[in-house]
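Troubleshooting: if your tokenizer reports a length mismatch, compare your output against this known-good record of 407 residues.
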Amino acid sequence: MTFGLLALVIVLGLAGPVLAWRSQWHLPVILGELLAGILFGTTGFGILNPADPTFTFLANVGFAVVMFVAGTHVPMRDATIRTALGKGALRAVLVGLLAVIAGQAVAVVFDTGHGALYAVLIASSSAALVLPILDSQGLTGPGPFQKPVLELTAQVAIADAACVVALPLVIDPANAGRAAIGAVAVSAAAAVAYFVLRYLSASGIRQRYHKISEQRQFALELRVSLALLFALCALATSTHVSVMLAGFALGLAVAAVGEPRRVAKQLFALGDGFLTPMFFVWLGARLNLREFGQHPWLILLGLALGGAAVLTHIAMRFTGQPIIFGTMAAAQIGVPVAAVTVGTQLHVLKPGEPAALMLGALVSVAATAVAANRAAVRQMAQPGPQDPKPADGGSGGSPDQKSSPAP
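Known-good structure output:
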């Protein structure tokens, strides 16, 4: 890794915002970053070496930050979704049961032996992807879709957290016991961090230091957040657990306490400006799409995984969930990315399988984008409260007279 290559990686990361520029398409920024990494990495020109130790370490730091930010997106303090937790949890569980069947079926058909891993991928959702889409389409808040959106939010949050915890246990079954012990240790450390942060917030200590830090530009809260994150990552690596769990668990703890807006902006600048594109360009550089040519069945595997994810989620129609929201619940990014990252590091995936997992994730993202657009169109078509209007269309009628609904 040199400064020249580092500059190239940052420039390649700009492909993400360029490809996602049109907000109507709902393409995730990481798609462009992945494609740029693929073009300049193992599949393409070979300029980027994903095996470089410095590049790999920076990418792992970015991975931890990505999962930390994903954890902070889970609405732990949102009181409005508590009424929807029951249905959200029920649907997450039912999807999980269907995913076990679908995952085993896909593993048998393609003879990979990764049925448990596929089940977790199919059952997963991405709060970091779904929640911003709901907000950008104006589907949150009062409206005809308020109740299904709240239930969707609860379902996605539960599925996201459960699958992140389950992934280390299923991706390497031979060492599942060791992974479980490490996961418990990391989760316990994150719980301790939560109680410490809650005490500092409730006692007013955090607010006092926040004011001083803001006045004197110390960035104390960002420094503390990063110190906690890297400490949990050190614990994770020493107990043979991916930094994925460390980042996500700490993100949940911070979300439960309440992330200061200033820290969120600082993390956004550090993550999305440098570390996140670094990770996704590196991940793209690691993917070898040439193996699709050697093993065409891998394309079918990716399509099968993406299709199974969408079908198992829209099956919740029988519980009363609209199909468009079931489709949106199938959106998956964080868990497949984590599966590819951890699986390649542990060498437990077959050649070309990482690319197939990412293809499956992109199928779910495409379906979610289409569903989000349809939901927005339907909401706009719903008649809303109308302003009083004179019956004759003029300005002299009584304000108590009602006009007909606007088309």
